[in-house]
Amino acid sequence: MKKYILITGGAGFIGSHLVRLLVNKYPDYDIFNMDVLTYAGNLENLKDVEAKENYTFIKCDICDLDKVRNVFKEYQIDHVIHLAAESHVDRSIKDPFSFAQTNVMGTLSLLQAAKESWSNNYADKLFYHVSTDEVYGSLGEEGFFTEETAYDPHSPYSASKASSDHFVRAFHDTYGLPTVISNCSNNYGSYQFPEKLIPLFINNIVNNKPLPVYGKGENVRDWLFVNDHARAIDVIFHKGKLGETYNIGGFNEWKNIDLIKVMIKTVDRLLGREEGTSEKLITYVKDRAGHDLRYAIDSTKLKEELGWEPSLQFEEGIEKTVAWYLENQEWLNNVTSGDYQAYYQKMYTKYTMYQEVKKEIESFGFSVVSHDFERPWGGFLVIDEIQAQEFSNKFFEGIDVNTLKIGGKLSPKILIVKPNARLSWQYHNRRAEIWQVYIGSAGIIRSDSDVENEMKIYNKGE
Ligand code: NAD
Ligand code: DAU
Fold first, then answer.
1. How far is the CA of 413 from the centre of ligand 1 (A)?
2. SS3 of 211, please?
3. Number of domains in the chain
């Protein structure tokens, strides 16, 4: 039977895979892709289907209720699959308002437009809302999220998705709107914007850039190949029961650091490098605020009631994914130009700079024994104590490291050299008995007193 399906967010990562699947599989359905084309939306992702007769792109903000109402009217929309969202947790920590706006208010405006347009004639209508496992919060070492797990979101992103899920259920319970919701685990595959772990790291390994691992890399995610998510949406769209929720996941948990090592090996091998050589790019950085420890989806209901199972083993999926990004450098270059540069600069420049200086120090034979890039005024690399005088001889005109000063006061363990020089600070850390090299620039280390205060705190062990 003919359907007029509005897919929102179809120019994004998962949306583009879903649009491609439905346009090709169901020539009788008319597919309307509504997307405002944020940084994450890219019509390049749909080049292969854009000329198909049953596909139409509509540039529209889901928050613009009047425009959304018109789309429902003009195209006689009878089914919605709603994916449009702000989707990156790190961005939500920096800017929660745009997440509330798009994910909550945008969902509400679609629900309202559907309700008005279908005006109680709900036969053969459906509002399908695509959500995430992050609404359930975080698991300990054991257990799984089921459809019964209570909501417990922690990030502004997951809070906004949880709120949108509640609005969808409220429209079902209050107005009888025919709805269905699915909550999926982490997706990976082609066309994912390189701010997310897998494409970001593949791109950085290729370009020999640091790989910023949050915390100790011990968080666990449950990874599903994006095409399998699209297949699951197809199944739930056609066979799911109204008012129900379905969890989607592949029982495929990976600790971040283990997954990262698999990616490194795969990229190294496919680039003809010795496997594992890129492990030196791993850079442990400050943990994500509110970082959920573990996600793991129990998708038994979907399997038993609707017969869906993932089609691909992870090893095969990651191989295909890495190969796709290597073969599609042009796509990567396009999406990483423009705004992406500013974003990357804001998020990662510090790590890149420290990594470069570390390499430089090591190239002179000094060993960097640890680092901390997250001090309020910048960060530091730690040099083995026995190399301190030698280091001073090399970089700091041989100043005696036992007679050093800070802020004009004699402090036998502290040295200030060449303010604004690239390698500009070092002092002795009494607790750890090791030497520290401060990497400074006018912008990063603001003043002597900043450093002095910082050292007081540091030496007190706070
Ligand atoms: P994405 O960021 O790659 O794509 C989002 C798309 O939505 C983009 O094309 C963007 O232009 C569009 N969009 C954003 N704001 C819009 C607005 N106001 N109006 C119209 N379009 C707008 O996201 P994704 O990773 O493909 O995720 C898609 C959906 O699936 C989201 O709802 C997300 O919460 C959910 N989800 C994602 C994952 C995952 O691992 N990526 C897992 C589970 C669920
Ligand atoms: O679980 C589903 C969710 O998966 C989706 O709802 C989100 O839209 C999607 O972005 C994803 O969220 P995550 O936060 O889990 O994905 P991300 O790729 O950002 O991070 C995966 C893990 O890797 C997470 O534990 C944080 C860590 N990480 C991430 C980045 C970007 C790093 O260690 N370093 C990084 O640079």
1. 53
2. strand
3. 2
